Amino acid sequence: MTEALTAGQGGLRQGYDRLTGPERIDIKMRGGRVAFGSQYRVIDDDGNSLPWDGESTGHLLVRGSRVASGYLKDGEGVHGATGVKDGWLHTGDVACMHPGGYVELADRAKDVIKSGGEWISSVEVENVAMGHPDIFEAAVIAAYHPKWQERPLLIAVRRPGGAVTGAEIQAWLSDKIAPWWVPDDVVFVGELPHTGTGKVHKLILREQFSDYTLPGAG
Question: Which segments of 17-175 does DSSP mark as H helices, in order?
Fold first, then answer.
């Protein structure tokens, strides 16, 4: 992000060049590592720091001499998921930190789905769903659930000639992601709304499906 443009860097740490090919690819697939002069933190919803164990996922905070310390005429404050508080830039990203200072981005905080107190990455579910040969494009948003608070709803566009059903997509996903990440329902549409930069416009999707009732949640 522009506010922290040089707070991270690519490339391998010293000694990592001795890793095997698959091990190096795994590291290079992450979002880079902490750059000299920068500091990273990952916190939970209550502001508690989480360990750098490659598993604990939370809100990513960054600070340093090359990181924005505030916004013009705005001072300090976190608005939504982003902003600056106590010198830390809240990036709006959900991430985990690996030993060695490597960051793995999971989702944007506004897009993550909180189901039964656990977080589901909408981006990861979307990427896997679009690996299906009959799916042209997909988006995952949160839908209200009376027991779990939120559950994933997959909104997809079939490829021309595709005839895959929602149940077939759910079955196809079941052994590729965590079972409780599998969307509770799949809705097919002719096209997805996009922003001016070509990204799926999830705000519009949330408005369109704000009253959607999941199967068994009515």
Answer: 21-28, 122-129, 166-173
